[in-house]
């Protein structure tokens, strides 16, 4: 078991051990406290009336459109579901696990403003070998939005995950097999899951 106390604890060696050797990880309580503090700061910014891209606004062409307060959580969910439009070939099991490791590591500074619960969910899915089916190919204009949508829609029970033999089962089935309830993305978490380039990092590690 590898205990992570800060983002900098996830070295290249640690990332490879977790992704390919399936070593288990635990997030230190002090790190979770930091994440909660950063989350509170992000929520305070929202309560102040600040417009935050992809959180209380649309994205891309619709960035100028405001999202009603009652629809904020539904908006985060839709960001994942509406962009998962890829197809096989999938990343290998090790590569897909490396995407989860890179995504989690990026959240551990607290700057993304996600909840500690999302980080724990990510860590738990690495520990129980929940491996999203992630398309190997994307389209250049969208960065990694397409593969990341495939990766993280599985957390809410949509899409597919890889079985040990490389076949796929539905994410809903995989969560049920683990007696895990689908994750409900909170404010900002949908857009945070789609941001950045964790798949590029994962492939660089491969």
Short key terms for the protein model shown above:
206 residues; mainly alpha; Fumarase C, Chain B, domain 1; two-stranded parallel sheet; two-stranded antiparallel sheet; globular
Give me a quick take on this structure.
With 206 residues, the chain is mainly alpha-helical. The protein has a single domain, classed as Fumarase/aspartase (N-terminal domain) (Fumarase C, Chain B, domain 1), CATH 1.10.275.10. It is 46% helix and 6% strand.
The major beta sheet can be summarized as: 2 strands, parallel
Shape: globular
Order of helices and strands: EHEHHHHHEEHHH
**Content of β-strand:** 5-15%
Q: Please, what is the CATH homologous superfamily?
A: Fumarase/aspartase (N-terminal domain)
Number of helices: 9
Number of strands: 4
- CATH fold field value: Fumarase C, Chain B, domain 1
Write down the Rg: 16 Å
The CATH class name reads Mainly Alpha
Distance between the termini: 22 Å
Question: How is this structure best described in words?
Answer:
By secondary structure, this protein is mostly helical. The protein has a single domain, classed as Fumarase/aspartase (N-terminal domain) (Fumarase C, Chain B, domain 1). It has nine helices and four strands, in the order βαβαααααββααα. It has helices spanning 12-20, 29-47, 72-81, 93-107, 116-127, 145-153, 171-177, 189-194, 198-205; strands at 2-4, 25-27, 160-162, 168-170. A two-stranded parallel ribbon has the order 1-2. A two-stranded antiparallel sheet has the order 3-4. α1 crosses α4 (93-107), α3 (72-81) crosses α6 and α4 packs across α9 (198-205). The longest helix has 19 residues, at 29-47.
């Amino acid at each position: 078991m590898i205990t992570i106390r800060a983002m900098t604890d996830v070295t290249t060696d640690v990332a490879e051990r977790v992704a390919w050797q399936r070593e288990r990880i635990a997030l230190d309580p002090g790190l979770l406290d930091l994440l909660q503090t950063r989350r509170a700061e992000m929520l305070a910014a929202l309560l102040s009336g600040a417009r935050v891209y992809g959180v209380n606004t649309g994205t891309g062409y619709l960035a100028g459109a405001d999202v009603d307060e009652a629809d904020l959580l539904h908006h985060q969910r839709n960001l994942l579901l509406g962009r998962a439009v890829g197809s096989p070939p999938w990343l290998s099991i090790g590569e897909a696990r490396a995407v989860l490791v890179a995504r989690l590591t990026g959240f551990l500074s607290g700057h993304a403003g996600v909840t500690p619960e999302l980080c724990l969910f990510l860590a738990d899915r690495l520990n129980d070998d929940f491996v999203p089916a992630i398309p190997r190919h994307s389209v250049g204009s969208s960065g990694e939005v397409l593969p990341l949508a495939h990766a993280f829609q599985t957390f809410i029970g949509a899409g597919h995950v890889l079985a040990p033999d490389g076949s796929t089962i539905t994410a809903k089935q995989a969560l049920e097999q683990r007696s895990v309830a689908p994750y409900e993305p909170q404010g900002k978490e949908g857009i945070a899951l789609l941001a950045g380039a964790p798949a590029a990092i994962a492939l660089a590690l491969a």
